[in-house]
Design a protein that fits this description.
Length: about 120
């Protein structure tokens, strides 16, 4: 299910005003608040997909660079087009897993397989 989080403020002052279920409601509330109160001139909304957390699989970005592994949760929803773990480009993986440790292991296994294929070992 998609929800629309209405926020106002900038940088460290940014805070949630409310949550609605449709884009139309979010647009209407933002429009009203932006026209009504000078302090609400920067009211915007952001769409979130709540089903991402129902699957028991979180999406991680795992990267191998500078001879070390980096891992972060995809909290900006940058890679929502991927529905399965994949190598986006060399050394950069989009991984679905239950934990960061599991995501790292999956990415390392994928990296090893890609290297073996490249060397003609598989």
């Amino acid at each position: 299910m998609k929800v629309y989080v209405i926020e106002k403020g900038q940088y460290s002052d940014r805070h949630v005003v409310g949550v609605v279920e449709t884009k139309e409601e979010a647009d209407k509330i933002c429009d009203i608040l932006n026209r009504t109160d000078e302090s609400y001139k920067d009211t915007t909304w952001t769409e979130y997909d709540t089903t991402q957390f129902h699957t028991d699989r979180l999406r991680f970005i795992v990267e191998y660079a500078f001879e070390q592994w980096f891992i972060e949760y995809d909290d900006y929803n940058l890679y929502s087009k991927y529905t399965e773990s994949t190598c986006d480009y060399e050394g950069h993986y989009i991984i679905y897993a239950k934990t960061p440790e599991q995501a790292l292991k999956i990415a390392q296994d994928m990296e090893a397989q890609l290297k073996a294929e490249k060397e003609g070992l598989i």
